[in-house]
Write a structure and sequence with these properties.
By secondary structure, the chain is mostly helical. It is built from seven helices and no strands. The protein is about 55% helix and about 0% strand.
Length: about 120
């Protein structure tokens, strides 16, 4: 993999993680100028210690970062961070839908707190 391809992959994973260049540079202990050069393919980041730091900061494994992704199977997830974010969002959603028993017994179980249900006129 050449420096340009690696830089593109670093930028891709940085954006996918919702990180700015400044935040990622800070996490790496590097300057934003250094990171911009790496992402542009102008500066090499091919030392193992640098790649390891990038992988840790971006929460991806080395194979994924350098483009040698393992073959996918139904039991392997290559992006655990996003799975965790989805899981947390789903748990939040289900807790929002849970209504106290007293609301359901008063016939208000079809709407979210503070919102009119279908057919309600307020």
């Amino acid at each position: 993999m050449n420096d340009r391809e690696l830089g593109q992959r670093v930028a891709y994973w940085r954006r996918r993680r919702g990180l700015t260049q400044q935040i990622l540079a800070d996490r790496l202990g590097r300057s934003i100028s250094w990171l911009r050069k790496v992402e542009a393919g102008v500066r090499s980041a091919d030392r193992l210690s640098v790649l390891d730091s990038l992988c840790e900061a971006l929460n991806v494994d080395l194979q994924t970062l350098i483009g040698e992704e393992p073959a996918r199977s139904g039991t392997v997830c290559i992006d655990d961070a996003q799975v965790e974010q989805i899981r947390n969002a789903m748990e939040l959603y289900t807790s929002l839908l849970a209504l106290p028993d007293d609301r359901a017994s008063r016939g208000q179980g079809d709407c979210l707190p503070g919102r009119a249900g279908v057919g309600d006129r307020r």
